[in-house]
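Q: What structure does this chain adopt?
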Amino acid sequence: MITSIEAIPANGSLIDLRGVTKTFESAAGTFTALQGIDLQVQAGEFVAVIGKSGSGKSTLLNMIAGIDRPTSGEVLVNGSAIHRLSEGQMAVWRGANVGLVFQFFQLIPTLTAIENIMLPMDFCNVYLDKEREQRAQHLLELVSIAEQANKLPSVLSGGEQQRVAIARALANDPPLIIADEPTGNLDSKTAALVFDLFQNLVGQGKTVLMVTHDKELALNVPHKIEIRDGQIDGDQPIDRSKGRTRQDKKE
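A:
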């Protein structure tokens, strides 16, 4: 089974961004999506990333997932300096360390629910062949849709598809779940069910980083980060010594 490239130090941050800047070149010139981001997230935290469209939220998630690389700065996740990894190393690292959940599910339409969940295990060659279907079925039970195992995504509701996507994100047992607007395509009742799933995962020791425009959901997340114009405008982490959050506002 794939393991992390490097073990995280005891009591260290699961996510540690140091001076991260990301620029993009286009015909219109240079665009700075992130500017000098410093961010630490501890293992086992539930974090909401909020901000207006175009503020840099998705770019921040892409940095942490290793989808994009910083123009400057350092990105350390689960003990690995991922900005230094080759493309091949990055694929191995991501398969072991990150589960991705998207707004529009991105399930393979020709595969059943259980086959979609097994796909990351096949791709990363984790678990024995006979164990993969058993694990996928267990994950479907975890998200309460085991009876939909052999159905194609097209016959599932939006909420059911998102729960399959969450189960797929958990396939290789990663420590970090990154969700980009996971409730944005769902009605409020189904969104609340998905939110409860994330809370349960955090209770089991996972770290969840979620971009959301839903201010009501964000109010219930312990650690909130606000992004404005590519910078962290507000970071409200958990104050573990006092059992509450503290507000750090950028001056």
